[in-house]
Amino acid sequence: MPELPEVEVTRLSFAERIAGARIDAVLVGKPLRWPLGCEVRNLLGQRVLAVRRRGKYLLLDLSEGLLLMHLGMSGSVSFGDTLPAAGKHDHFDMVTSLGTLRLHDPRRFGAVVYASGEDDPVAQKLLGRLGVEPLSEAFDALGFHQLLKGRKTAIKPLLLGGQAVVGVGNIYASEALFLAGIRPTTKASLISKPRAARLHRAIQDVLANAVAKGGSTLRDFSNAAGEAGHFQLEAMVYDRAGLPCRVCAAPIKSIRQGQRSTFYCATCQKP
């Protein structure tokens, strides 16, 4: 599943190239998770002013309104002058004066939704409950610790839930907890202020490093230029069950938390 780094990498790979483009045609394939929310003709002639990100959503600012794009569980975006003919898993093509933007999504859990602005109820339904951005100044260590103090759930599911910070998915939660030396089963309320500060820094470091490495390509993720990510090659614990810890050589353990696989080192990560 594409996580925040993959979405940010995708944004960076086409944002500058599409800025200023005029929308000439929009082709919609099989239904996605949510309907487009407007007539295709309403998009024609509009300009793409900029591409932003909020959590795992790409926000395409238009001359009138915006498009919210979500990659779902298996989606990816392509942008170029000479894309091949749309295949059965290509469900949204936006043809512009600077190239075609395409959403490829085999499982169709992704979406492209139009809203008149971020205060539109349609946009608020998707964005209104998202937590603080982890790579922004709004994500501060003290506020993070204060939020953890009131939660008795285990720290990893809390991170995945997005209440404490948005966009930290399964891969990067496991990696950040390892870097901070915190067992994923530890109750959030038991994490001290110094340990919360280490986790705060670890979340930012792991996500920034993942963006720099182009994200993680576990199956078929690629950015809008067709380039795969490489962060998974240096993962410390994720998907390494039974392999020796890169720090202490103890075998990496795997458990299930909330129907998701969790990986950790029982020696390096303390309860």
Outline:
The chain has helices spanning about 5-20, 120-125, 140-150, 155-160, 170-180, 195-210, and strands at about 25-30, 50-55, 55-60, 65-70, 75-80, 90-95, 100-105, 110-115, 255, 260-265.
Break the fold down into its secondary structure elements and pairings.
Elements: H1 4-18, E1 23-28, E2 48-54, E3 57-62, E4 66-70, E5 76-80, E6 90-96, E7 99-104, E8 111-115, H2 121-127, H3 141-149, H4 155-161, H5 170-180, H6 193-212, E9 253-257, E10 260-264
Antiparallel strand pairs: 1-6, 2-3, 3-4, 4-8, 5-7, 6-7, 9-10
Structure explained in plain terms:
This protein is an alpha+beta fold. Helices cover 25% and strands 21% of the residues. Helix 3 packs across helix 6 (193-212). The radius of gyration is 20 Å and the shape is globular.
Highlighted features:
single chain, four-stranded antiparallel β-sheet, 21% strand, 271 residues, alpha+beta, 25% helix
Global outline? globular
- What structural class should be given to the helix and strand makeup? alpha+beta
Helix content: 25-40%
Estimate the strand proportion. Answer: 15-25%
The biggest beta sheet is recorded as: 4 strands, antiparallel
**Strand order, largest beta sheet:** 1-6-7-5
Q: Report the strand count.
A: 10
Unreliable residue runs: none
Query: How many helices does DSSP assign?
Result: 6
Order of secondary-structure elements: HEEEEEEEEHHHHHEE
Can you give the mean pLDDT? 94
What distance lies between the first and last C-alpha atoms, to the nearest angstrom? 28 Å
Specify Rg, calculated over alpha carbons.
Answer: 20 Å
